[in-house]
Amino acid sequence: MGGTILCFGDSNTHGTAPLVAWGARERYPEPARWTTLLGAALPGVTVIAEGQPGRTTVHDDPVEGAHKNGLTVLPALLETHREVDLVVTMLGTNDCKARFSVTPTDIARSVDRLMGVIAASGCGPRGGAPAQIVVAPVPIAETGLLREVFAGGAEKSRALAPLLAEVAAARGAGFVDAAPEVVVSGIDGIHLTEAAHRSLAEKLAPVVARALGGAPGGWNGRRDGQG
Questions:
Q1: How far is it, in rounded angstroms, from Cα 131 to Cα 208?
Q2: Is residue 221 part of a domain?
Q3: Is residue 116 part of a domain?
Q4: How far, in Å, CA of 2 to CA of 86, rounded?
Q5: What is the largest CA-CA distance in the chain?
Q6: Taking burial as the number of CB atoms within 10 A of a residue's CB, which of 15, 87, 188, 197 is the most buried?
Q7: Which among 180, 197, 177 has a CA at the least distance from the CA of 41?
Q8: Is residue 223 in a domain?
Q9: Torsion angle defined by CA atoms of residues 145, 151, 155 and 160, in that order, rounded to the nearest 10 degrees
Q10: Count of structural domains within the chain
Q11: Are the C-beta atoms of residues 10 and 54 closer than 8 Å to each other?
Q12: Are 189 and 144 contacting, i.e. CB atoms less than 8 angstroms apart?
């Protein structure tokens, strides 16, 4: 089995650790991130982590900046990494911020719009479309430093999985619901713990392997001698 996977996401794809202070930029070491662990479970596969803290699906962020808009940057990323066999998209958490005032249905439709861009990109094998998997982000909790930023967002996040499953099915894409095996940290209610990164990689590995036409290697969560 081989191939190139582009993981398109936000801070939880970037590997951002739970926030305890504004301006903190702590990031888990590379071996602890779910994207690295996924690559370790799939011999011969190249995993490209394209996670940006604060990234939305289709929205310019009036507080953090227009560059957080995933729709704007996606075509460039696809072209940069061409050829891409599979795109794994895990977005929607930041759309739950109070400042955007969007519904779960709108978030799912926004993910669908991203999927349309991927399908039409010509960045897959032989100029075709990459295969796609949509991951429903882990439901959030309104707690800690970010509770006001995400006020009302917990309920929206819990409603996303079935809506995203419908979007994925309509496009013939794969779908993974990160919950309930993967949970957010109780520190800020948004970011994953190191254990959650491992759980997410373990859950995704067989789905990704099937999408690439193979079977995952033995899962042991280790890479380059790291435990």
A1: 10
A2: no
A3: yes
A4: 11
A5: 47
A6: 87
A7: 197
A8: no
A9: -80
A10: 1
A11: yes
A12: yes
DSSP symbols for the chain: --EEEEEEESHHHHTBPPPSSTT---B--GGGSHHHHHHHHSTTEEEEEEE-TT-BSS--BTTTBGGGBHHHHHHHHHHHH-S-SEEEEE--TGGGSGGG---HHHHHHHHHHHHHHHHTS--SGGGSPPEEEEEEPPPP---GGGTTTTTTHHHHHHTHHHHHHHHHHHTT-EEEE-TTT--B-TTTSSSBPHHHHHHHHHHHHHHHHHHTTS--------BTTB-
Q: Are 16 and 191 in contact (CB under 8 A)?
A: yes
Query: Rounded CA gap, 75 and 14, in Å?
Result: 19
Determine the distance from the C-alpha atom of residue 186 to the mean position of all C-alpha atoms in its chain, rounded to a whole number: 20
- Is pTM beyond 0.90? Reply is yes
pLDDT of the chain, 227 residues: tens digit per residue:
689 999 999 999 999 999 988 888 899 999 999 999 999 999 999 999 999 999 999 999 999 999 999 999 999 999 999 999 999 999 999 999 999 999 999 999 999 999 999 999 999 999 999 999 999 999 999 999 999 999 999 999 999 999 999 999 999 999 999 999 999 999 999 999 999 999 999 999 999 999 998 655 443 333 333 33
Burial of 106 (0-12, 13-18, 19+ CB in 10 A): middle
Domain that holds residue 110: 3-15+28-211
CATH code of residue 116: 3.40.50.1110
Please give the distance of CA 77 from its chain centroid, rounded to a whole number.
Answer: 15
